[in-house]
Amino acid sequence: MPPRALRAGQRAELHVIDVVTGEDRLVHESSSLLFEAPNWSPDGRWLVVNGGGRLFRLPADGGELEEVPLGDVPDINNDHVLSPDGATVYVSAEDGHLYAVPFEGGGAPRRVSNDRGAFHHYLHGISPDGATLAYIGLVPHADGTATTNVWTIPTAGGLDVQLTDDEFPDDGAEFSPDGRWVLFNSERARTQPGHAQLFRMRTDGSSVEQLTFDERVNWFPHVSPDGSRLAYISFPPGTLGHPADLDVVLRLLEPYDADGAPGTVRDLVVLFGGQGTINVPSWASDSRRLAYVAYPMS
Prior knowledge:
Layout: E1 12-18, E2 24-30, E3 35-40, E4 46-51, E5 54-59, E6 66-67, E7 76-82, E8 88-93, E9 98-102, E10 110-111, E11 120-126, E12 132-140, E13 146-154, E14 161-162, E15 170-175, E16 181-186, E17 197-202, E18 209-210, E19 217-223, E20 230-235, E21 246-254, E22 264-273, E23 289-294
């Protein structure tokens, strides 16, 4: 499918918010390119976004977009993560595969994923040691529906491991900073279609625990690097999937305690966005700053 584009009168705004002070800084905006899904480089120098099927970076303090060469990788979507050492960026391409690309350029991309027919890989997380990717495996069906489950694969390539196997939509699979958990959103506890909540499980797929319990539709859990906070995007009740162009809320669950009951929820920012706002890990290494994209209409 073609890359998303801005609507008439719409712009994309890249923000960085300090979750302690509430200071919200506009870093970059565009009325021509719909960019999405910010990552931070581990050294804090760069913010990374995708747009128009390509990958870009810009200085974390603001500046112009600089394209990250992808070589012969097909157009990418908004699922990308950086390795813990910052040397490699892993991307999901529209051909359904995962690729490893040198972040500083100067090398050829490498396909990581295996050929599984119509199976599509949607990347969301990387383990703290950089050895394993967490992704959503999508199997399309003839009636237009699809089954999604959580999988992992070594970053060096190798055998895929399936962690969930059910009929409920799963998405947003991401490792906890200590490497002990995989967090994800799922409709397995839904009260109506589309009612996703946040969960975590051990890295072998066992010990599934529910983390949020409310009427809203919660997606894309991101634990801060120090393990103290869980950020996520919350859609209005009744939302199906994670669509674009809605009034959504970025929320924090704090303290997030990997060995006990999660803390309380607070609203961080209300914005017009959704798809593309925080699809991928978006914390700075200081565990205070969170990057997100809003899509306001003029």
